[in-house]
Amino acid sequence: MIYTVTLNPALDKTVEIPSLTIDSVNRITTMRTDPGGKGINVSKVIDKLGGRSIATGILGGDTGRAIQSALEAMGLETCFQFVEGETRTNLKVIDPVNHTNTDINEPGVTVSEEILNELLGELLAKLAAGDIVVLSGSLPKGAPKDTYCTWVKACKAAGAKVILDADGALLAAGIEASPYLIKPNNHELSGLMGQTLETPKELERAARSLMEKYGIAKIVVSMGGDGALYVTENETVYAEGLKVPVGSTVGAGDSVVASLAVAEESGMSLEEAVRLSTATGAANVMCSGTQAAEYSVIEGLIPKVVFGRL
Questions:
Q1: Which of these is catalytic: 34, 47, 131, 254?
Q2: Pseudo-torsion of CA 263, 267, 270, 272, nearest 10°?
Q3: How many C-beta atoms surround the C-beta of residue 190 within 10 A?
Q4: Which residues fall within 8 angstroms of residue 296, CB to CB, at 6 or more apart?
Q5: Is 221 within 8 Å of 185 (Cβ atoms)?
Q6: Are 199 and 227 contacting, i.e. CB atoms less than 8 angstroms apart?
Q7: Is the distance from CB of 253 to CB of 243 less than 8 angstroms?
Q8: Which of 189, 213, 210, 212 is nearest to 199 (CA)?
Q9: Rounded to an integer, what distance in angstroms lies between the CA atom of residue 155 and that of residue 119?
Q10: What predicted TM-score, i.e. pTM, was given to this entire model?
Q11: Residue 254 falls in the annotated catalytic set
Q12: Fewer Cβ close by (within 10 Å): the C or N end of the chain?
């Protein structure tokens, strides 16, 4: 089973405003809302890939109930803990004229360490050896900075493989517990290493140094439109980015994480995982908001993926 953890979820409101202008009245031409947060996005994509997951995390208020209802209407399994306060609403502004994507994110609810420990305990009670746990996204106010480190250790002790998708200080703290797989982008990896990394070779060397230092089995380094690096103990694969019409880049990284989780659970080869994750990421870029691409679109892109070993 795959479990996705979203400790700071959101209701994503995506609007389109042609020629967005600061300090002026702007008119919205299209709008949609989606249950969001990185782990939730992962669960939505896993479902489209034909996989099964249980989405867990923290929700609050009417917004939280709306998110849970929307996920259940999609047929997704959920196991959220409700707390006082209101789950945040995040605004995504797409300007199709200037080709920009602007995120305006609310801070969300404040969560105590006690509540986080209760949720972790509930998750651990469900975990079985070989399960996959996806920890991703920001932490709510009140959460200790080493929360992901604590959760990685606990889930590993229960026999699960942990995929960690975070950035900055949260990623730095999380890798101390040796997650199974991490998916930083090139900028996040550069931040971890304290230097600017630009070429695939530089990124590969940095990834391997982290693998050796922290005992991480796999690292996938996303490079936006330039593709991604897939680094394992024995080999490195570079996959070129697919050129597709862009609907929204929000959630593209989450779709890659979802495909990696599905590939891991089903025992796919590295080549199969590369094809699936590259195609899934590109297909979701073509969608508006944080809706998940249909598998038929993903399937059509898989043969177009170009990759090679470094």
A1: 254
A2: -60
A3: 17
A4: none
A5: yes
A6: no
A7: no
A8: 189
A9: 12
A10: 0.92
A11: yes
A12: C
Radius of gyration of the chain (CA): 19
Q: Phi first, then psi: what are they for 226, rounded to 5°?
A: -85, 0
| CA–CA gap between residue 181 and residue 165 (Å, rounded) | 9
Q: How far apart are alpha carbons 75 and 168 in whole angstroms?
A: 33
- Cα distances from 295 to residues 15, 41, 50, 58, 102, in angstroms, run 25, 15, 8, 29, 27
Range list of β-strands (E), 96-179: 100-104, 132-136, 161-165
* Total residue length of the chain: 310
Pairing of the two strands 307-309 and 10-16 = unpaired
Backbone angles phi, psi at 160, to 5 degrees: -90, 155
What is the chain's pLDDT, residue by residue, as a tens digit (310 residues)?
A: 999 999 999 999 989 999 999 999 999 999 989 999 999 999 999 999 999 999 999 999 999 999 999 999 999 999 999 999 999 999 999 999 998 989 898 888 999 999 999 999 999 999 999 999 999 999 999 999 999 999 999 999 999 999 999 999 999 999 999 999 999 999 999 999 999 998 999 999 999 999 999 999 999 999 988 899 999 999 999 999 998 888 767 678 999 999 999 999 999 999 999 999 999 999 988 886 677 889 999 999 999 999 999 8
Is the Cβ–Cβ distance between 216 and 183 less than 8 Å? no
Structure tokens at 306: 């170009």
